Amino acid sequence: MSSRIPTDDTFPSDQAAFEALAAEKAVLLELVATQADEIARLSAKVVELTRRLADLEQRIGRNPRNSSMPPSKEGLGKPNRLARPERRAAGRRQGKQPGAPGQTSSRSSWSTGLWIL
Questions:
Q1: Which of 12-26, 31-45, 75-89 shows the lowest per-residue confidence on average (mean pLDDT)?
Q2: 27-48 as b/e, with b when 16 or more CB fall inside 10 Å?
Q3: DSSP of 56-67, one letter per residue?
Q4: What does the angle CA 21 – CA 22 – CA 27 come to, to the nearest 5 degrees?
Q5: Which of 3, 46, 74, 82 has a beta carbon 3.0–4.6 Å from 86's, enabling a disulfide?
Q6: How crowded is the C-beta side of 15, counted as CA atoms within 13 Å?
């Protein structure tokens, strides 16, 4: 197992090289701080744009059929109604659905032939 312990020959021995490294370190630290600020700014922008996108997607999904908007707001992009064969192909029959309770009208008195004048 070899440990990488620095020895005296790996460090710069003269003062000029040490000062150059210190100056380079200061520049790099300033660059890191600038990048951290930029990352924070961009992260806030991402949050704002994500919220705005969700709002716009919700708005674009609304139409008079699934909201309280009047039908006149639908404009020219109104979806076409399915033709009769396509509605039948959807699997639902017209009128009362099977199993639903039925309703009938009772006979009125005039149908029995009695007229009161």
A1: 75-89
A2: eeeeeeeeeeeeeeeeeeeeee
A3: HHHHHH--TTTS
A4: 95
A5: 82
A6: 0
